[in-house]
Design goal:
elongated, transmembrane helix, 128 residues, transmembrane, mainly alpha, Putative membrane protein, 4 helices, membrane
């Protein structure tokens, strides 16, 4: 297993901020790849999505849920690659902007759910 920070240090805030920045840049990059206009509403929505997803992953690690953090971050990475793939190939012409962001959010949501399940399984197996 990946050696992560111990629970409760302030460095988790920096790690969460890095995840936020990375997700925000990728979401903006996908719009640039689709040659779409970006206005303040897009920037606000992308920053809110990035912030919520970064906090969802970071808070688990902050409280010692390294399994949750690892699983959710792995799914985030998969979602990012799928988002960029859909944006690059314009797989659904005319709908690429919507399908790429929804597919990313779906994969990220799966990561959170599977991360919670994996963390619960780890907790239960440690107790026995």
């Amino acid at each position: 297993m990946l050696k992560l920070l111990p629970k409760f240090p302030f460095r988790w805030v920096w790690l969460t901020g890095g995840i936020f920045l990375l997700l925000f840049i990728v979401l903006l990059l996908s719009r640039f790849m689709l040659h779409m206009e970006i206005d303040s509403k897009n920037v606000t929505a992308f920053s809110l999505i990035s912030l919520l997803l970064a906090i969802a992953a970071g808070i688990g690690g902050f409280f010692g849920g390294t399994t949750y953090f690892s699983v959710s971050l792995t799914f985030y990475a998969g979602g990012v690659f799928y988002l960029l793939y859909l944006s690059w190939t314009r797989a659904n012409d005319g709908w690429s902007d919507l399908t790429s962001i929804i597919s990313f959010l779906f994969v990220a949501g799966l990561g959170i759910v599977f991360g919670v399940v994996a963390q619960l399984i780890r907790i239960l197996t440690k107790r026995q």
